[in-house]
Amino acid sequence: MTPTTTYADLLGAHLADPTPETLEPLRDAVRAAPGFDPDLRVRERAGALLREGRFDDAVAALEATMPGSLLSPAAHAMLATALRRLGRAEAAARHARLSRAALDGILATGDGTAERPWSVLRISDEYDLVDSLGTRPVSQGLLADATRWIDRIECEDGRTLHFDATRVPGAAVRA
User: Fold this and answer.
1) What is the domain partition of the chain in residue ranges?
2) Interior angle at CA 71, CA 55 and CA 79, nearest 5
């Protein structure tokens, strides 16, 4: 990110033209963000707060993960839920749109086959996408080909989904 380019600039460019070409500079900026956590566990951290009805605390916890979670579908979906419960409909709708845009960004990078796997920032993004497709994972395995780390997820509905985890920090360590 250049000194004159902001996360908002990169996000705005991507939302105006949602292609892999506008997504990668945004992803690079998020990867370099202070607090970027490849093992982001927003569902565990904020989920308990939401279940307990502690919506203000959930918003604070989720917002504290930004900008490192800027492209996390789950972070924005949970923010939308908490904000809606707090009566902040406009902010909730914005985060719902950002959650969908994050999922659409992943979908734009491939088709989920072994030949054209979807690219992700973190492993939790894979599970967010699987959830959005209305299925559940039953097994996962990390495979290596000549140049990439491919995460293969078998789903309960019989689908096999593939994700390019090459640029996910620590993915190869998990193999």
Assistant:
1) 7-107, 118-174
2) 10
pTM: 0.90
Kind and range of the H or E run holding 69? none
- The total number of residues written for the chain in this structure: 175
Per-residue pLDDT of the chain (175 residues; tens, 9 = 90+): 555 589 999 999 999 998 889 999 999 999 998 878 888 888 888 999 999 999 999 999 999 999 999 999 999 999 999 999 999 999 999 999 999 999 999 999 999 999 999 999 999 999 999 999 999 999 999 888 888 899 999 999 999 999 999 988 766 555 4
7-107 topology per CATH: 1.25.40
DSSP-H helix ranges across the chain: 7-16, 20-31, 42-51, 55-63, 73-85, 89-107, 123-132, 171-174
